[in-house]
C-alpha cells in the first residue's frame, strides 16, 4: 500500500534511523497542502501532520535522535520542529534566496 499527500504530491522524504517512520513534505497552493507528515511505516498510517509553511515544503529531514526534524520551503524558511508536540522550535528565514531546495545534516566527525 502507499502513503501520500492526496492531491498535493510529496517533494521530500526521509526515513528514521530505525526504519519505522517516514517523514514527507509536500507541494501546495496558497498555504494549503504545504505540509510535513510523519508516517508509521509498520502500520502504514499517518502519525501526525505539521503545518506552518506558506508555500511548498520542498524538503524534510529527521534529525539525529529522532525527536526533532527540519523542513525547508519555497517560502524561504527552514524550520526545526519538535516531533511530539508539533511546535516550531527554531526558524531561519533568508529573504535574499529564491527558496531552499535541499537539506542535510552532518555530525562534524
Quick recap:
With 109 residues, this protein is mainly beta. The protein is 0% helix and 43% strand. Strands 1-2-3-4 form a 4-stranded antiparallel beta sheet, with no helix packed on it. A 4-stranded antiparallel beta sheet has the order 5-6-7-8, with no helix packed on it.
The secondary structure category is mainly beta
Low-confidence stretches: none
Helix content: under 10%
Task: Give the total of beta strands.
Answer: 8
Strand content: 35-45%
Q: What is the global morphology? A: globular
How many domains in all?
Answer: 1
CATH architecture descriptor: Beta Barrel
- What's the story with the biggest beta sheet? 4 strands, antiparallel
What is the alpha-carbon Rg in Å?
13 Å
Q: Span from first to last CA?
A: 38 Å
Order of helices and strands: EEEEEEEE
Q: Regarding quaternary structure, how should these chains be classified?
A: single chain
**The level-1 CATH class:** Mainly Beta
Average pLDDT number: 87
- Number of DSSP helices? 0
Named CATH topology: Thrombin, subunit H
Strand order of the largest sheet: 1-2-3-4
Protein name: Pre-mRNA-processing factor 19
WD repeats: 50-91
Organism: Fibrocapsa japonica
Keywords: WD repeat
Features:
Thrombin, subunit H, mainly beta, 109 residues, single chain, globular, four-stranded antiparallel sheet, 8 strands
Task: Describe it.
The chain has 109 residues and is an all-beta fold. It has one domain (10-93): Thrombin, subunit H, CATH 2.40.10.480. It is 0% helix and 43% strand. It has no helices and eight strands. The strands form two sheets. The protein has a four-stranded antiparallel sheet with strand order 1-2-3-4, with no helix packed on it. It is globular, with a radius of gyration of 13 Å. The termini are far apart.
